[in-house]
Design goal:
Length: about 325
């Protein structure tokens, strides 16, 4: 019996050596006719969710068959990216590896205590990656799939001529598309003695000296050459004399969470203690009518509060005084 690691390697090699759409359909567990019909008749459900910073985000949720095919393809792409991804990338990394060294905390750790920090956000990250670009990804190094295979993969992974936010394949494809940009930034940053990390569309640089105009132009130039656009509203240049944040974690002297985050959590716990779980969760979830009686929502609220408290321990450590006090309050409710 083959070892799981060997089976994974065989699966990855089988995918990387694809020669035809028929071989692709077999890897995805379908007949050629069934696969052709599936990619010609993909259907997505569109809905919006609120952003933490205001506004809404468009989510495109694929139909069950498309989701199933994308899930199988994701396993192939994940295994390949896991073998080549650079250390500077911390977003959309498989869980087993993320637990080790690539996650949101590790992303922030790189910039801890640096005098100058620059954060840049890529505008419309997923949606700026077109079907044409995805097809080109599969047609060139390292895949070198023929036109038919590359087109079939692009059609399976894209919707409305772009990478959809809601497909499980979109994160790993975005990382694959960014491989060259990450390589350029690593080379440039090394020469400039600057730290560089990327967490999805959040790009962070830190330096012992202030960023000059030439460096800013170089950063903008690399991003634009790679087909992306900077969200000008989210360029944040922070010095050690101000609060410095990387993907929601404070990095001035030690890793920390936002004071507002802790205050809001304390307020929720006080509300639960004073008014009870039912009133508290209906208030903070903004529920109406008989929805407040739905047990799964109560459970969701409980887990959400627990997760918020655990996030403090994740960032600051399980010996942290703030975490332990809040956790004791939570367990005593």
């Amino acid at each position: 019996m083959l070892h799981p690691k060997t089976m994974k390697e065989n699966s990855k090699n089988r995918f990387m050596s694809l020669q035809s759409v028929n071989e692709l359909s077999l890897i995805l567990g379908m007949s050629l006719d069934g696969f052709a019909s599936a990619i010609e008749n993909v259907n997505y459900k569109l809905f919006e969710i609120p952003k933490k910073t205001g506004g809404t985000r468009l989510i495109s949720s694929p139909d069950p068959l498309t989701r199933k095919l994308q899930s199988k393809l994701y396993d192939c792409l994940k295994d390949y990216y896991q073998s080549v991804h650079p250390n500077c990338v911390h977003g959309f990394i498989p869980k087993q590896e993320a637990k080790a060294s690539h996650h949101i905390k590790a992303n922030a750790q790189v910039h801890l205590g640096m005098p100058y920090l620059l954060n840049i956000d890529i505008k419309d990250f997923f949606h700026s990656i077109s079907t044409k670009r995805v097809r080109s990804l599969f047609a060139n190094s390292p895949f070198y799939f023929d036109h038919e295979v590359s087109t079939a993969l692009a059609l399976l992974c894209c919707y409305d001529r772009k990478l959809p936010m809601g497909a499980c394949t979109s994160p790993v494809i975005s990382n694959l598309v960014c491989l060259q940009m990450d390589a350029l930034f690593m080379k440039w940053s090394f020469a400039q003695k600057i730290n560089y990390t990327r967490y999805a569309d959040d790009i962070s640089f830190s330096s012992s000296t202030s960023f000059n105009s030439q460096q800013m132009q170089a950063i903008k130039g690399i991003i634009e050459i790679e087909g992306f656009t900077i969200n000008e509203k989210k360029i944040r240049l922070q010095s050690k004399h101000t609060s410095q944040w990387v993907t929601g974690i404070k990095v001035n002297q030690k890793l920390n969470v936002n004071r507002t985050y802790v205050r809001n959590l304390r307020a929720i716990l006080y509300d639960i203690k004073t008014n009870g779980w039912d009133k508290a969760y209906s208030k903070h979830f903004q529920l109406e009518g008989n929805k407040i009686n739905e047990e799964h929502l109560k459970s969701k609220f409980y887990l959400k509060i627990k997760g918020k408290i655990q996030h403090i321990a994740y960032v600051k450590g399980y010996n942290d005084e703030v975490y332990n006090k809040l956790n004791r309050q939570f367990l005593g409710l």
